[in-house]
Amino acid sequence: MKSSVSTAPPTYDQSMRSPELKTLGTEEDMIKARSLVGPDSIIHAALRPSESAINTVAYAQLKTFAIIPCFWPHLICVGPCLCFTASNIKECLKNTLYIITNDRLIISVEEYSPPCSCCSQTTGLDSGEYYYENIVEVGVDNRGQGCTIFRVSKVRLQFVSTTALLIVDNPAEVADLIRELRRSNKEVGSRQVVIQQPIESQPEVQKRIFVAAYNSPNSFSIINLGDDPQRWQEFQNEIRGRFNIPNHLSLMFKLADINAEVKCASDLSSNDRLLVFF
User: Fold this and answer.
1) What CATH number corresponds to the domain at position 22?
2) 133 in a structural domain
3) What is the CATH number of the domain that holds 270?
4) Do the beta carbons of residue 43 and residue 16 sit within 8 Å?
């Protein structure tokens, strides 16, 4: 016996809307967008091209051939292909959804049946994601007049290696929304705290020094000395103890091999022979 599990259609949670930015799109498109992006993203807009914009884009080529008389002979041959192409473009745009979330733009093309498979640009179920941090420029192309009657209003997002176009009736409003989200993402990135891993302290390097009193230059005693400047005073105190030198006597140090005066720990290397004068 087969068992079937029914799944309730997703609903759009009003609490996921941004309290600061205006949300654009119909409730139906918001529900569809939520099913595509998942519950973790905040949806600020779910938009589709308008019917007038779809017709303008779809039939632009066909209208160009139709209004120019010198193209009419060619239209007899290529007219059917232009008609099927226009129908395919129209179906593609009707099933296109622009989803603007808190961190990226998603362009989704839902599955549809193209009127002509030979002229089809897509088979549906296509999608692309564009993250705001990679945007180079946000532009607005408003519909022209006169000879540019076939143009439509759109938002142009320029990336380093590609361009994304959003065919919308309110390009300025959509562009402002994307700019604000882009700015917000940059501010969040700049405020992120970098947690540095604690640096493990390295053991202090000890230098082995052969020390002898000036009056017994051949009787050396081995004393370890660290590079820390504070170790220099401890080194002198240990020498006083080893050779029974009173505190009221000042000390002077010289390298036994080259008779050079030593004034700090950095003047010494491991296995140096040091003479103490007091």
Assistant:
1) 2.30.29.30
2) yes
3) 3.10.20.90
4) yes
Of the listed ranges 94-103, 116-125, 173-182, the least confidently predicted one is 116-125
* H/E segment holding residue 80: helix 72-94
Q: For 70-74, which contacts have Cβ atoms below 8 Å and span 24 or more sequence positions?
A: none
Same domain for 236 and 155: no
Do residues 39 and 133 share a domain? Answer: yes
Q: Token digits for 51? A: 């019917």
Q: CA 184, CA 186: separation in Å to the nearest integer?
A: 5
- Residue 132 structural domain: 14-188
Q: State the Cα–Cα distance between residues 195 and 198, nearest whole angstrom.
A: 9
Q: Which residues pair with 141 in a beta bridge?
A: 154
**Identity of residue 179:** R
Q: Domain check: are 272 and 234 in the same one?
A: yes
- Distances, alpha carbon 277 to alpha carbons 171, 211, 216, 244, in Å: 88, 11, 11, 13
For the chain, give the percent of residues with pLDDT over 90. Answer: 5
Residue with tokens 């622009």: 98
Amino acid 62: pLDDT:
81
128: which 2 tokens? Answer: 């692309």
- Structural domain count of the chain: 2
Of residues 10 and 204, the one with the higher pLDDT is 204
**Radius of gyration for the chain, computed over Cα atoms and rounded to the nearest angstrom:** 40
Give the Cα-Cα-Cα angle 21, 23, 27 (nearest 5 degrees): 160
In a domain, 271, yes or no: yes
Residue bearing tokens 């079937």 = 4
- Residue 213's identity, in one-letter code, is A
Three-state secondary-structure class, residue 137: strand
Could you report the per-residue pLDDT of 101-157, keeping only the tens digit for each?
A: 988 899 988 877 766 666 555 555 677 888 988 888 898 887 766 555 567 888 888
pTM for this predicted structure: 0.57
What distance in Å separates the CA atoms of residue 16 and residue 45, rounded to the nearest whole number?
12
